[in-house]
Design brief:
This protein is α/β, with parallel strands linked by helices and 230 residues long. It is 41% helix and 28% strand. A hairpin with a 2-residue loop joins strand 10 (218-222) and strand 11 (225-228). Zinc ion is lined by residues 158, 160, 169-170, 173, 192.
Length: 230
């Protein structure tokens, strides 16, 4: 009890310290309040930004990384691997007996993409070990069929009837191809297979298509040389 009086100055000091602390916290709150409000506003703005983006269904600037290269574009010709297997199935039926054969490939514009959707046998009246000729009557029927369906001819695929790990179009193949390419304003490709399922996509100088193989089961060997994996 006797110590009571002696403690007054210490009490005053503690009181002063507490006041100082309170004032300090007050000042701190003045400093932090705008920051906290700013953070809340930023959260709100980012939410409204995302909501706006969703409502108007467009990508606002700065929300998406810039896509440098589109995989599928206007002048790309998408060739599904199923179509390649189907072309090879028909060609191989003749190739296995040592005879060349030709099929036509048709494409359609679907959602702004050029997609090869169809393989048509050309029923070659000439089918020899080093040459084949498509039936003109059949070609003309194929062309009118494609026109009826809103499709177009994308090119021809043929087979060189031997087993090989590489294949290239012959001089005659290139010459014939150039005529078709000119006729179709550059929108024409050629594919040459071997009996082993190796194939090369080729075109001439005027070609306006960039072939893109879509799907599994095809392996790129190098450049425009590929192999069916089955
Ligand atoms: Zn050939």
């Amino acid at each position: 009890m006797s110590a009571g009086l002696g403690d007054i100055p210490q009490f005053a000091q503690e009181f002063k310290k507490a006041l100082k602390n309170m004032f300090g916290y007050f000042l701190l709150s003045l400093y932090l309040a705008p920051l906290a409000a700013g953070a809340a506003a930023a959260r709100l703005l980012s939410f409204s930004f995302r909501l706006a983006e969703r409502l108007i269904e467009v990508k606002l600037p700065g929300t998406e990384p810039e896509v440098k290269e589109r995989v599928f574009g206007k002048d790309e010709l998408i060739i599904p691997t199923t179509v390649l297997y189907e072309a090879f199935r028909i060609l191989r039926k003749h190739g296995r007996y040592g005879r060349e054969w030709i099929v036509a490939l048709g494409y359609q514009e679907i959602n702004g993409m050029n997609i090869v959707t169809h393989v048509h046998d050309t029923f070659c009246p000439v089918s020899l070990p080093a040459s084949a000729r498509a039936d003109e009557g059949v070609i003309s029927r194929i062309l009118s069929f494609y026109e009826r369906c809103g499709a177009k001819i994308a090119g021809f695929a043929h087979i060189h009837p031997w087993d090989a790990r590489s294949v290239s179009p012959s001089a005659i193949d290139i010459k014939t191809h150039a005529l078709w390419e000119e006729l179709y304003d550059g929108k024409f490709i050629g594919i040459v297979f071997t009996n082993s399922g190796v194939f090369r996509i080729f075109h001439g100088r005027r070609c306006k298509f960039r072939p893109v193989i879509a799907g599994d089961g095809v392996r790129r060997i190098e450049g425009d040389l590929y192999a069916l994996e089955a």
